[in-house]
Amino acid sequence: MDGGQAQIIEQGVLTAPDEEWDVAVRQAEVIGRLAAEPRVGLAAADAAASELGISQRQVYVLLGRWRAGEGVVSDLLPGRSSGGRGQGRLPAAVEAILREVIDARYLNRQRRSVASVYREVVRRCRGGGLPVPARKTLERRIEALDPAAAATARKGADGARRLRSAGGDPPSIEGLLQQVQIDHTPVDLEVVDERHRLPMGRPYVTAAIDVASRCVVGLVVTLEAPSALSAGPCLAHTVCDKRPWLERLGLQAVAWPMSGKPHEIYVDNATEFRSEALRRGCAQHGITPAYRPSPRSSNGWWRLGVRASTPAGAAWSPTPTPRPAVACRRS
């Protein structure tokens, strides 16, 4: 009794299915008679087994359950599994030890092995008089951890970088030229002198890509290393009409209708994008410069756009194959 109320423990009388309850009632009639005898021989067990349609061994199992219980029908109901696929079978105290040891011993920069962590689990369980879980149980708990979070805890942010998205969350862009990303990359070819065929170096491409349309809206190719002298002209090329530039190149048949002043340019933290000239030029024309938050984060939209602008990105990414040579007349 607790607080004047009786505690009623449900043993299956109200929850057992009708089929199981009917079988238990029939078995109780036979097993009850056997349990009244001081000794149940093989002949009596065989007769009960024949009557119930079960084996002799099952008769003795039911008889043991009847005598160990209260001698009621519910003693013969089939047992219910407390575990099962996808459900824990360990005591709550053992589960708590597993979590504590994994957090304290496995998820740290000492990078202990699973064997070392398991030895600590065994030590704590035995010290608390608890059943020791199998090592496979510990391995399943570790495999269920978030891979990126576990790698960060054991190896730091650098170790988890390959498990995370390179581009992070995509920017919230609603209209054309709302954000334009600008960056540089070397072209996969070698420029050589027209007369002596001496290498002059690899040109750099500075490209501006509109995030909303994924279109290249500005482009500058130069043999000089990336600087404000390439970032500024690329931004100017983004704003200007491309037709005069294409006509000077003899490309009258090529259409490049993308142009306009961007609301925001998104760049990395390189020196050329931090220059006073570029900042003042953007302020002069009402363009907002936005910088990548982390030096190691990826300028994902720009790289996706560059790869989509050329066949397989062949002319945009350095490769170990021999680079083609292009003759250039020195000015």
Automatic annotation (TrEMBL):
Residues 312-331 are annotated as: Disordered. InterPro entries: Integrase_cat-core (IPR001584), Mu_I-gamma (IPR015126), RNaseH-like_sf (IPR012337), RNaseH_sf (IPR036397). The lineage of its organism: Bacteria, Bacillati, Actinomycetota, Actinomycetes, Streptosporangiales. Residues 167-287 form the Integrase catalytic domain. This is Transposase. GO terms for biological process: DNA integration. Gene3D superfamilies: Homeodomain-like, Ribonuclease H-like superfamily/Ribonuclease H. PROSITE patterns: INTEGRASE. GO terms for molecular function: nucleic acid binding.
